[in-house]
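Hey L., structure's done. Input below.
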Amino acid sequence: MTDSLPLILREEPFFDAIEIELPEGVAVVTMEFPEVTLDRLPEIFDSHFHELAQAGPIGPGFAIYHGDVTDEFDLTIGFPVAGRTDVDGLDNGYFPTGHALVMSHLGGFDGLGSAWESLMERHFAKGGSAPRAIVEVYVTDPSVIEHDDLRTDLFVLL
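Output:
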């Protein structure tokens, strides 16, 4: 794990899918959105990540998906923070812990679908069952990094 920012588990991308243990005690602020469909993601991200940023993030943003992402699912978005916040509309909590299968996607968000397909194929080929959730950690900031140079770490929570 790096000493730089919470949720960036190492400087170099995870080019191959590997199992890791997620760190414990990473404080986060979040917002929850029930019964979401994929077509609503841009609007949710664009209009709510700035609200979350009021809590003073100390690491990259993330999204946690519960349920079938090809249908309706529950979405949680957030940032790691140094400690509890009292910003209205934000929930305090901790990033999920436990075992996860991780792989990095390099490139624009439009390629995330195929990256997820590849990771899930590997997960099920290893005998994996339905995950607790899937998580995207947006390692690089799309407001300052070129589209093709973005890095998103994908986690299947086991």
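The two ends are 20 Å apart (CA to CA). The longest strand covers residues 27-36.

-- N.
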